[in-house]
Each structure stands twice: as structure tokens, then as C-alpha cells.
Amino acid sequence: MLRFMTPGCGAIRPGHLAAHDNWIRSLDEGTYLMEAWRCDLATGIFQLGEQTAALLGTSPPSCGVIDLVRAYDRKDRPTVLNILEQATASSSSFCFTAMVRAPTSQAAQLFCVGQSVLNAPDGVDVLQGIFAFPRERVMLCA
Q: Whole-model pTM?
């Protein structure tokens, strides 16, 4: 499913672990560089991988949701915000793709596959998942 998604598209499934696993499997590890991310919902701070932070133009290893969303193309932001908002309302599996603006003002497509874990026994509500982008990191003209 993800290979054919165009920027600005996304999907969310209520607590659907099979969808999450299928979306991750659809990202061929030979084609995409994948890095884990995590967001503690109590603080709203995202912990990113070093290469993802560089692609987004944020300071590793952490950033806020505003910094994260600001890196996305304007027309893709509503989709991303909508999915993240839905994922914080109930335990969910989600995916989306968006164009991100590199600090060099070029653009690259970024995929996100995540899940929200709410009302966990340890009391820590989180969003977590992977960001994936083409391994060759072909930058497209913006």
C-alpha cells in the first residue's frame, strides 16, 4: 500500500496491529532507510533518529510537534495533523506520506508508520513507529 501512496495521503485503523505490521513489511528495507521514532504524549516531545532529524532539519535527538509538522510541505500538513490527532484520541495504527523540506529547500518523500499506545499498564501514553525515506535519498526539485 505505501509504495503507491502519494504525498498527503494516509490511513488510520483502530488498534490494528496487523495493518501496522503489513505497512512496515511493505517498505522494503533495501529500498528505504528506516529509523525508529517515539513521542511521549505527556511531554509532546518526539525522539528521532539522527538521519531523520537531518532530513527534517531539526536538532537531534528530539523536537516538538510544531517543529516536526513545519518540516512537511504545507499541503500535506492537514493530513499529518489529522492522523496524529486521531491517534492520540484512541489506540490506533496509522501511516502517512508527505513531502518534507530539507534545509537546502529541496523536497523528499517521507513515509511514516506508527501506532499509538494509550492507557498502557505503565501509565505512559506514546506514539511510536518508524520514518522511512528512499535509501538513495534522491532529492526532487521543489
A: 0.84
